[in-house]
Amino acid sequence: MIFGEVPLADARGALLAHSLQGETRRIAKGSKLTDDDLSELAAAGHAFLTVARLEPGDLHEDEAAVMLARALVPDAAAQNIRISGASAGRVNLYAGSCGIVQLDRARLEAVNAIDPMVTIATVPDHHRVDADGMIATIKIISYAVPNASVEKAGQGAGGAMRVIAPVVGTATLIETRVTADVPSDKGRAAIRGRLERMGVELHDRIVVRHREADLAEAVRAAKGGLVLILTGSATSDPKDVAPQALRLAGGAVTRFGMPVDPGNLLFLGTHQGRPVIGLPGCARSPALNGADWVLERTLCGIDVTSEDIAAMGVGGLLKEIPTRPMPRRESRS
Known about the structure:
Elements: E1 2-7, E2 15-16, E3 20-21, E4 26-27, H1 35-43, E5 48-53, E6 58-60, H2 61-72, H3 76-79, E7 81-83, E8 90-95, E9 99-103, H4 105-112, E10 118-122, E11 128-129, E12 134-140, E13 144-146, H5 147-154, E14 161-164, E15 170-177, H6 186-196, E16 201-202, E17 206-209, H7 212-221, E18 226-230, H8 241-248, E19 252-256, E20 267-271, E21 274-279, H9 290-299, H10 306-311
Parallel strand pairs: 15-16, 15-17, 15-18, 18-21
Antiparallel strand pairs: 1-5, 2-5, 3-4, 6-13, 7-8, 8-12, 9-11, 9-14, 10-12, 19-20, 20-21
Helix pairs in contact: 2-5, 7-8
């Protein structure tokens, strides 16, 4: 691409680099200059223009952005991604449904390593997204780029991103109480909100005493495709009431504790082929916590291993929540 200042008379057919006011109208940057445009600018006193002109083998910014998008998303239906139209060298990618974004970081980094003018920016891997939420933007920075750069950037990038839709349709939340009083509905409401935004139905409320036998019986009777446990007293050990109740019900505990704050006191397990998540107390707040990361992946059928949870610690220091019993910030006396 040729870029620079030229006499106005030599600018016909070039792309205007900067928006300019003509005699009667404004001419936007990126416009392919016509004789009428040049007359407008000449009448306004412009003698020289900064323009871009494509050379053989170059692609216009919009054409390049579309070409790269199609290379990244060769099967929009299978990848559950919608490709937008192109404008000003930009094409956006949107989720076809709610779910979790799954990215191949190495292949996407390879796209950005080819030519600084050819770029893609994405949400983080395993980011929860709503239907039609933006997951990536492709931007061609210059007005034109070599076709070879776009072809090279797209090589091997097909399928490097996709949106995984939820596969769990129903969930059961079991709450425990430590007194005769029924727990506040605040926690259930926060969890219902999390499930509803993923299209998951929450079964009728279940509240039992904070005892292993009572909780185990409720786990056995739970009808949801996912079982959630929210205890009235914090689960502080792998052999505490809730994990032991899961074992007593015939299930297994695969992980206790996570290096995400808030969210440390989560446990994960299974019961008769269903995932079971023991929620930390911070799940009573709608604010982001570590349980969200495990819950969202589980709802989408993504296997969450103990190693996966261990890896969540880097980037796992999340925003403080008002209900935290011991705030991170030290008090000043």
